[in-house]
Amino acid sequence: MKENEVKQTLDDIREMMSKSSRFQAISGWSIIVIGLLAGIASLMAAAVIGVADVPFFDNLQRYSTLNTPLKIRIAALIALILFTVCLIIVFVFAIVKSKRHNLPFAFDKRMRQMLLDFFIPLIAGGLFSMAMVMQQHYGLTSSIMLMFYGLALINCSHYTYPILRWLGYTELLIGIIDCFTMSHALLFWFLGFSVAHILFGIIYVLMFDRKNA
Amino acid sequence: MAILEGLNKVFENKVRLGIMSVLAANGSADFAALKSLLDLTDGNLASHTRSLEEAGYIRSEKKFIGRKPNTTYLITDAGRAAFAAHIDALERFLKDCRS
Questions:
Q1: B57 within 8 A of B20, measured Cβ to Cβ
Q2: In chain B, where are the structural domains located?
Q3: Residues A145-162: pLDDT tens digits?
Q4: Which of A67, A135, B38, B72 is deepest in the core (most CB within 10 A)?
């Protein structure tokens, strides 16, 4: 056996171990797109609710005839639509990527387990923040969303690349800081769901997508 | 060749090494998953899993999901040890080449 042959064999083993145990189909581009969409959604929410940080959005409030519970409900609806669109985007991008690079993508035991691990914390957090909104406790909604989303990512990250775990830690940290900070909810929401996704998406693309392209 | 000591004959085949890689990483995998990961035909995969089973490196569990038979393959302790020893031997060989 020659040196190159042995090296190739070891690389093959490494690749097969990684390919079979990690869900590689997630595309970094979809993470960037999610970040951009979340940015647009936070601007829309800012226009509806108004933000003290940005005078332009605050001034808009003078013309608004909506009352606070209604404004919050509109914002929650925007978030819900955003979430649904993002889920579809992740799946479509993953299917395209797995076709292009011949990666496994099947609704098998691993995928079911991964989705379960992701959705259990997420749904718990979603219901929690919905209950808060319904009881008109608006202050902590953004922190709850950020923290539970972070926990969901951490919880399912061992099925995929470790970088998603770091995205989870980041969301969790932003959520925790948000808890203790008054009246900058939308700013933290923007940081967590838009800026963090775009940054981690770019790193993900550079680390994994470009290499395989 | 003394330098290739420790290399396992059973793992000289690429398919068998692939099966062992998947099972070492995941503990178990079913027939369909192995087939698609390694891009093999039914017959090809079955003959290699049989030889690995005969060597005692993997074992299979057959059950029915509804009416469909489903075979899951699991790595045995002996299989794990043999696979680790094989990789060690390969890595030692590379080291010797470099030094």
A1: yes
A2: 11-98
A3: 999 999 999 999 888 888
A4: B38
